[in-house]
Amino acid sequence: MTTTIRPATRLSGALRLPGDKSISHRYAMLAAIAEGATRIRNFSSGADCASTLGALEALGVPVRRNGTEVVIDGRGLEGLREPGATLDAGNSGSTMRMLAGILAGHPFRATIAGDESLSRRPMDRIIRPLEMMGARVRAREGRYPPLEIEGGRLRSIEYELPVASAQVKSCVLFAGLYAEGVTGVIEPVRTRDHTELALREFGAEVRVDGRRISVRGRPRLVARELDVPGDLSSAAFFLAAALLVPGSELLIEEVGLNPTRAALLDFLAGQGASIRVLRVEQRAGELVGDVLVRHSPLRGGVIEGALTAALIDEIPVLAVLGAASREGLIVRDAAELRIKETDRIATVAENLRRMNVVVEVAPDGLRVPGGQRFRAARLDSFGDHRIAMAFAVAALAADGECTIEGAEAAAVSLPEFFPLLEKVAGELGG
Ligand code: S3P
């Protein structure tokens, strides 16, 4: 599907976004192995989280979905049933990597596959720790999906993560639920901590000592009533659009502000963005609040080291903002970007170049000089949801009408993206 986007005159109004994708995956998986019925409100509307629910149903977990609310009938820690067919993770790395940790604790064989993009993403990062714990995992060429997981009794391990990855950390902690004793994970830098918070909510014993996170095995997980905060990574596109388009002012309500995710707000504020957090409260360990953003010229900046891990999903749209900033954007230590839904260093650079924006590419990052304008162009999502949305934002500031091929990829995390954008930016152009 090709979507046309006209330049916007301004963005205004208020928005409430569907539930955070990362948190929705975790709540659904833990609900499935808890005892009793968990009710999850404002569950993510994205296709990725639907893949998680579908896989859980195929594992014998009753799931009822009514609009944005999901009720999951937990089967208990070891209550999943051997699936009759291959589990389908779709485009979702989180589904495959995190669910693998739970499957490793079950005494049956399960195969989990994904779409073309997911089939190219490395899984050795979870295979290694799961095999150390006693599971058997077969993969194409030893590292690519589909994965065939033969689980059973697991032993606890101390695992030092070779890459900063919340998905791998979560996989090991979920497998740790099935091991005797305490399983520990040491992170190279802090990554999003939704798993730690969610495990505690469901009743597991989790400790965090600096960069080491541990969980005690064989807990009794108990069903909960939960509300998922709005997705800050989805909000990022609207924040960026409001910052970019003169005269804009946007209120984003009830959005997740977990400190391991909110580096985005600090990074933008540090460049001169007018961003105000109006109200914050805590729900199930997660911070939630309202954010008011106004159009602001940005200075530009450098993303490297721990900041790269904290902003990893936001880099495509930050690269767009970087081109319009005064000094530009430099991204380093971001080799992980090359193995996301697409090689995001390549797909960001390709679309920027189509818009006549200069960009230099490195093996693990990019440099976008500042003070540039976006020329109207034919853009492509390359099937990647965050590329579709990042370049819809760039298109709003272009010097004419743009098209985006494959814009429907946005549905992987936010099917409502284009209607919501029209709500605050006016008609996009068909
Ligand atoms: C996620 C972690 C990140 C992120 C992904 C969601 C999660 O991946 O890019 O969109 O929910 O844990 P990695 O942990 O592999 O970096």
Give the overall shape, derived from the CA principal axes.
globular
Structural class: alpha/beta
Placed side by side, the strands forming the largest sheet appear as: 2-17-19-18
Mean pLDDT: 98
Largest sheet: 4 strands, mixed
**Low-confidence segments:** none
Which small-molecule species are bound to the chains here? shikimate-3-phosphate
CATH structural class of the largest domain: Alpha Beta
Proper CATH architecture of the largest domain: Alpha-beta prism
Strand tally: 25
Strand percentage, roughly? 25-35%
Q: Number of helical segments?
A: 13
CATH superfamily of the largest domain: Enolpyruvate transferase domain
> How many domains make up the coordinates?
2
Q: What is the helix content? A: 25-40%
What is the terminal separation in angstroms? 11 Å
Write down the CATH topology of the largest domain.
UDP-n-acetylglucosamine1-carboxyvinyl-transferase, Chain
Write a structural description.
The protein is an alpha/beta fold and 430 residues long. Helices cover 31% and strands 27% of the residues. The strands form seven sheets. A four-stranded mixed beta sheet has the order 2-17-19-18. Strand 18 (274-283) and strand 19 (286-294) form a beta hairpin. The model has no long low-confidence stretch (mean pLDDT 98).
